[in-house]
Amino acid sequence: MTAELGMLPLAEREQELPPRQAGARASNQHWTEATGAQLLVVDPFVDHEQLAEDMSTRGVHVTCVGSTLDALIEFGRLRPTAVVVAPETPGLPAVDFVRKVREYGPTFVVAALDRADAPEAGPLLLAGAGAAMTRPYTAETVWDILDKSGNSFDDHAKVSFGPIELDTRAYLVRINGERIADLPLKEFELLRTLMYSAPEVLSNDELRLSLWGDTHAGPADNTISVHVARLRNRLQGIARIRRIRGRGYSLTLGS
Q: What is the domain extent for residue 28?
């Protein structure tokens, strides 16, 4: 059950660059902002892997950390669309963490509580949290709260490049308006990532960060090559995935 204990007014979000201008984001930090919505989860008690997998099908990258101190570092790196924080998380007190986050902009903060009437709810809302939810929560719970708050991830859900249209919320791809057979999850995420930055070149580390949430936790380069090869075969005659030796991959139009 989700308990929305209060919604606080938020400043208007900074306007995002459109996907085709994502190449103007020079640094890795800014590049990740342009490739989809970012959710930072500061809760050592949630099933991180399941949440990340379920949110990825909606075009949302989940980064999970076990302390509020680590969360501050990740917040500075990612500038996430939304943050989930549990009051019991070790490190900086959760109330102070929320205040710090709110100092730097309109990121929406959701408190994760053990019960709806938890005493921590009030201080977290006063510190700047916009809503609260009870455990156990799911990707659908988080999505629903953000939808109701006006901080939906929908702006990141759709992207197009040439004749290709991709909708992460509906999990579908259209070519010239016609829906194609569903892609395996990683190929779907790979296509979305390449489309967001096309025709810019993305390195293997940038692809790991986008598809697996970490440049170190992702697979080896040859595994990425396999995913690229499979997606390339599906796009024959529609678009081309170029491999630039020593740099990475780029999506361009034409075979």
A: 19-155
Instruction: Tell me how many helices (H) and strands (E) the chain has.
Output: 9, 11
Beta bridge partners of 41: 64, 84
Q: In whole angstroms, what is the distance from residue 148 CA to residue 9 CA? A: 13
Of residues 193 and 78, more confidently modeled: 193
CA distance linking residue 24 with residue 200, whole number of Å = 9
Interhelix angle for 94-103 vs 68-78, to 10°? Answer: 20
Determine contact, residues 195/166, Cβ cutoff 8 Å: yes
Q: What is the DSSP letter of 128?
A: T
Residues 127 and 248 in one domain: no
Do 67 and 165 have their domain in common? no
Q: What percent of the chain has pLDDT over 70?
A: 79
Cα angle 235-153-148, degrees, rounded to a multiple of 5: 145
Specify whether 139 is located in the same domain as 26.
yes
**pLDDT tens readout for residues 4-23:** 443 333 333 333 333 333 33
Question: Contact, 43 vs 112, CB < 8 A?
Answer: yes
